[in-house]
Design a protein that fits this description.
Elements (H helix, E strand, L loop, with lengths): L8 H9 L2 H25 L2 H17 L1 H14 L3 E5 L2 H14 L4 E4 L3 H5 L2 H7 L3 E4 L2 H9 L15 H12 L7 H18 L2 E4 L3 E3 L4 E6 L3 H5 L5 E7 L3 E2 L2 H15 L7 E5 L13 E7 L23 H5 L3 H4 L10 H12 L2 H8 L7 H5 L6 H14 L5 H15 L1 H14 L4 E2 L2 E2 L7 H4 L4 E2 L6 H7 L10 H15 L3 H14 L37 H14 L17 H4 L5 H14 L3 E5 L2 H14 L4 E4 L3 H4 L3 H4 L4 E4 L8 H7 L2 E5 L2 E3 L4 E5 L14 E7 L3 E2 L2 H11 L7 E5 L4 E2 L7 E2 L6 E7 L1
Parallel strand pairs: 1-10, 2-3, 2-4, 4-7, 5-8, 7-10, 14-25, 15-16, 15-17, 17-20, 18-21, 20-25
Antiparallel strand pairs: 5-6, 6-9, 9-22, 11-12, 12-13, 18-19, 19-22, 23-24
Helix pairs in contact: 3-12, 3-24, 4-25, 9-10, 12-32, 15-16, 15-18, 16-18, 19-20
Length: 770
């Protein structure tokens, strides 16, 4: 459900402050997420260098957005996807409705997508007789409640177990206890039925990779994998800014996003989808539609004060550190996006400062959001810019304008200020006592309601200064003087906005400046002559450009002030910092690090000398779990397990051997799946599974127990080593599905209580062979 605002943010905040559970839940959750982010950043190390690299990748991409969108669209179409461009919410809704009508859809299963919330898409589908079902556990709960998400990462943060039990009991038709395991189990069972029967699967997009035409989705529950695997039609809604040039750049985002959002090294699942299923595949969507949405995002392009807003990667870190959000929660903001990012993004998308200025005022301007942001968006500066624009607009508050004018006149002359202070000292006698003013007078009433205002002292600093013996004035410290001159120069050039504009020009030239207020990392200040050149992506044969694409890309280029689809001349930085690319663990340490990380995420790891020992391990573990129906990928390495001999009483099927079998249904009925790993990354405890006709993605998704056979020589140190193969192979070498798995399916959407096994397997074993 989408949220429509009622009243002002002040009125909604007052209601939130009366909800004790909400305040406690929001405070507990945000503190947990904030602590997780801080710990993850410290453990990873060099966090400022990573933030700066992420910022530079985003600056470069947005500065050449039309070029990378065009490259992505061409490659996605070459992969078999259908790409649509929508300038407005109405256009995006119309495209989705037309697809639903054409395939005669009755139900749509959705994974988490803020863009669909932004578009009010569930209601739009209902209007044409299509039922939209949220499948993220938190989103499902609040859909049943008829509410909107209150946090970008944990949507049902404001619901307790008792409330959730009542909602799910009504859906179940029986009384369910307020027990996390029981509630999550019901949701898994009910939504599994919806997955298997849905006509369309709908996803968001965390990032799109331009050079291979891939869409990438980060998640923990497995519902996004379900939505993009089981239904025959998939629709992905993508904000036009959610793009990176290459898989090397995605490694940086995969380092920043999970750590900033939840404190994880990597989400349980990272899926890269490069087109619909191939002709030989037995699962995956037969149609893949990608809808690239503007809906006000282009308002920020070319605006030196707000273009960096498009750098946002939707991690929610700014919400978790914001003192305002932590007290009032997300619904008080009255829009799809809450917290500091919502306070800036909502008026920017709507281009309606008059309507949304109260959100910009819901901030202490402390700068904690900028410090937490993984790509260094100066949200605190942008909030000031919004306030200034409101003050300069015809919609400004006339009383406030008169007060500011009077204040300016008073401060213009020392004599006026002195007279005003004397008047204040006289007047405060009637409003205060014991050094504090507590009388709620005029515009001070709201502020004094929760705190005391100190009384004006009998002697002002200016009066004291006249009597102080200061002695001989000392010269200003040179370092301090230099900093002051830099600040004055920045203000003269338009503040941080000027810096942002300069950064944009530098990005176009291939030279990336240091971040505002930060010391650049040595790996990022290499001589430009040694900088990485832009990798020319494998480009498919050009085809006539659709009108919707031509119009949007032309609009973007005009906003950026250059001819459409102008290729960047070069890039100073591509992918991870140099120090990270040089990082490698010895083989035995890779094995130990992988096992420690995968087990920390709730998985199991066994090291065995050969396939015979692997077969014995699978047989023992399957018997212990009562798993008698096993589904195995059709890979030569797995055939070497000889499970028929090790498990003579088990029913073992091999994926896609019989073209007449419904293999998705077969996977849904299996007790365990057995798959072969293509690669693994020790540093994050992640296994990479590449789909093909013989190696269906459903085998690692639908059964409740999963065994992953990992040859030891496929174990790498970093994700970037795996991603490098995708960049080198190019678009034509990409499988339809790349799925990174870092443990069992999980969720903490029910009152922050972690539950394992939500939609994907809850019992996952990696068997390292050799």
């Amino acid at each position: 459900m989408s949220l429509d605002s009622h009243g002002t943010v002040k009125e909604r905040a007052e209601a939130a402050l009366e909800d004790d559970f909400l305040r406690q839940a929001v405070r507990f959750t945000t503190e947990r997420l904030r602590a997780g982010r801080r710990q993850a950043a410290e453990e990873h190390g060099n966090w400022e260098a990573w933030r700066e690299r992420g910022r530079q990748i985003r600056l470069h991409t947005i500065a050449h957005l039309d070029y990378y969108l065009n490259l992505f669209a061409e490659n996605a179409r070459a992969n078999g996807a259908q790409v649509h461009f929508a300038r407005t919410a109405e256009e995006a809704v119309r495209i989705v409705q037309e697809i639903a009508r054409r395939v005669q859809a009755k139900t749509v299963v959705k994974s988490k997508s803020m863009v669909t919330e932004e578009l009010h898409l569930n209601q739009a589908l209902k209007e044409i007789g299509v039922k939209a079902i949220e499948t993220d556990l938190g989103e499902y709960i609040i859909q049943l409640a008829g509410e909107a998400p209150s946090h970008i990462i944990i949507p049902a943060i404001h619901k307790n177990k008792g409330q959730i039990a009542e909602l799910l009991s009504e859906e179940a038709g029986e009384r369910l206890p307020p027990d996390t395991k029981v509630l999550a189990g019901f949701a898994r069972k009910r939504l599994r039925e919806e997955f298997l029967g849905a006509d369309i699967g709908m996803t968001g997009c965390n990032f799109a990779v331009a050079e291979t035409g891939s869409i990438c989705i980060f998640e923990n529950e497995g519902n996004a994998r379900m939505v993009s695997t089981v239904p025959k039609v998939q629709i992905t809604l993508m904000g036009m800014e959610r793009i990176v040039p290459s898989w090397a750049d995605l490694e940086v985002m995969a380092t920043l996003l999970p750590r900033s959002a939840t404190g994880q090294k990597l989400t349980v699942y990272l899926s890269g989808i490069s087109g619909p299923r191939r002709p030989e595949d037995a699962d995956g969507p037969e149609e893949l539609h990608i809808v690239i949405v503007d809906n006000g995002r282009s308002n920020q392009l070319g605006d030196p004060e707000f273009q960096e807003l498009l750098n946002c990667i939707r991690c929610g870190a700014c919400l978790n550190v914001c003192p305002v959000y932590r007290h009032i929660g997300g619904h008080a903001y009255g829009s799809t996006y809450s917290g500091p990012i919502g306070a800036v993004l909502t008026p920017a998308l709507k281009a309606n400062v008059a309507e949304w200025d109260d959100i910009a005022n819901a901030s202490s301007l402390c700068g904690a959001c900028w410090e937490a942001c993984p790509v260094k968006i100066p949200l605190h500066d942008m909030l000031v810019f919004l306030r200034r624009r409101k003050a300069e607009s015809p919609h400004r508050d006339m009383a406030e304008a008169a007060a500011m004018k009077a204040y300016g006149l008073m401060m213009a002359k020392p004599g006026r200020l002195s007279a005003a202070l004397k008047l204040a000292r006289f007047g405060q006698r009637f409003a205060g006592r014991d050094g504090e003013i507590r009388a709620r007078i005029g515009p001070l009433g709201g502020w004094i309601k929760h705190r005391a205002l100190p009384m004006v002292p009998n002697e002002s600093f200016r009066d004291r200064w006249k009597t102080l013996h200061t002695g001989e004035a000392k010269p200003l410290d040179p370092a301090v003087e230099e900093r002051l001159r830099a600040v004055l120069a920045e203000r003269a050039g338009g503040g941080h906005a000027a810096g942002a504009a300069a950064d944009g020009l530098a990005a176009q030239a291939g030279v990336q400046p240091a971040a505002h207020g930060q010391t650049p990392d040595p790996a990022q200040t290499q001589d430009h002559a040694q900088a990485h050149a832009v990798t020319r992506a494998e480009s498919p044969e050009p085809s006539p450009m659709p009108d919707d694409q031509r119009a949007m890309l032309g609009h973007i280029a005009a906003k950026l002030g250059r001819p459409p689809r102008t290729a960047p001349a070069g890039r100073a930085h591509r992918g991870a910092p140099d120090f990270w690319r040089a990082f490698a663990l010895p083989p035995e340490e890779r094995r130990e690090r992988f096992a420690a990380n995968f087990q920390a995420a709730g998985g199991h790891v066994a090291s065995v000398p050969d396939l015979h020992a692997a077969s014995r391990y699978i047989a023992e573990q399957a018997a212990a779990r009562g798993a008698s129906r096993l589904l195995m990928q059709d890979a030569p390495e797995l055939a070497g397990l000889k499970l028929d001999s090790a498990m003579p009483d088990a029913c073992i099927s091999v994926w896609n051997r019989d073209p007449d079998t419904d293999w998705i249904a077969e996977a849904a009925g299996a007790d365990a799946g057995i798959v072969l790993a293509d690669y693994a990354a020790a540093y994050t405890g992640t296994v990479a599974l590449l789909s093909s006709g013989e190696r269906g993605r459903s085998v690692s998704l639908l059964p409740p127990v999963l065994f992953i056979v990992l040859p030891a020589d496929r174990l790498r140190t970093r994700l970037g080593e795996i991603f490098a193969g995708f960049d080198e192979g190019g678009r034509s070498a990409m499988p339809a599905g790349v799925h990174l798995v870092s443990g069992p399916s999980r969720s903490a959407d029910i009152e922050n209580d972690l539950t394992i096994g939500v939609h994907g397997p809850g019992d996952v074993h990696v068997i390292i062979v050799g």
